[in-house]
Amino acid sequence: MGNGADENKTAFGEHAATTAKAAESLPTREKRKIVINLMSGALAGAVAKTFVAPLDRTKIIFQVSSNRFSAKEVVKLIYRTYLKEGFFSLWRGNSATMVRVVPYAAIQFCAHEQYKQVLGTYCGTFGRPLPPLPRLLAGSLAGITATIMTYPLDTVRARMAVTPKEMYSNIVHVFIRTSRDEGVKTLYSGFNPTILGVIPYAGLSFFTYETCKSFHSEYTGRPQPYPHERMVFGACAGLIGQSASYPLDVVRRRMQTAGVKSQRYDTILGTMRQIIAHEGLIKGLYKGLSLNFLKGPVAVGISFTTFDLTQILLHRLQSPGYPER
């Protein structure tokens, strides 16, 4: 009788320990997933933005000026910048971009994974691709979350991109001088058009990429696209997302850099009216879009591909049997 009781106690103790371990492992796994998503997103943003930084800076300069945009003028501007300030000046403002884009991309990609999980549970499709509307919603919510948390860094980056080195010596100097001379509120200039723009941009970008992967899996029978296929899917996502939100991107840049350009832009509609009145609808609100057709798809393609591959690699380092997504 004693031995039986001891065995029962031992079995009960082992069962309790196993149950406790299982209960503890779930939040641990969730925390690990979040960390991996944050790291993968940060690397994705850094690699993509650094690759296209010279084109990005050139686009911003045209967006905030009234100069005529053309491919010839783009080449001239890049060449003049190279002659006057040196090769690495083409990456001026990239340090500010990294300070902003690393947390932005980390938060956006991680938030997207979390929103997908929440919406998947709500829709009853957990572990499977989301239906179209929740898929679009997950991307938009991810973009909004990241924008709210990192916006002042975007203003700093825009100002460094359009000013000479003598005006701002570093990122901290931009924060201090802007806050002192124009007020802290200035760091949030252009916030409203940014939010309005990020809803279709992030929503359609993530929606397109996830939809392409879903169609690929359905029609090829392969659970995973090859890296070059991911690049193509990401390029399509970037092309569609940026086309839907580009005018608001121009408005945002004008509002962010108004102080250093001695101009005043108070509202979204007011800024749009000024741009259209002085530069026209297409040449004003869509200035630099053709350059973005080159830069945007490449950047988004690199970003999505880097995130997916880094995420898979980190999961496999943690769990060797982890399947590809």
Automatic annotation (TrEMBL):
InterPro entries: GDC-like, MCP, MCP_dom_sf, MCP_transmembrane. GO terms for cellular component: mitochondrial inner membrane. PROSITE patterns: SOLCAR. It is found in: Mitochondrion inner membrane. The keyword Transmembrane helix applies. SUPFAM superfamilies: Mitochondrial carrier. Mitochondrial carrier mediating the transport of coenzyme A (CoA) in mitochondria in exchange for intramitochondrial (deoxy)adenine nucleotides and adenosine 3',5'-diphosphate. Belongs to the mitochondrial carrier (TC 2.A.29) family. This is Mitochondrial coenzyme A transporter SLC25A42. The gene is slc25a42.
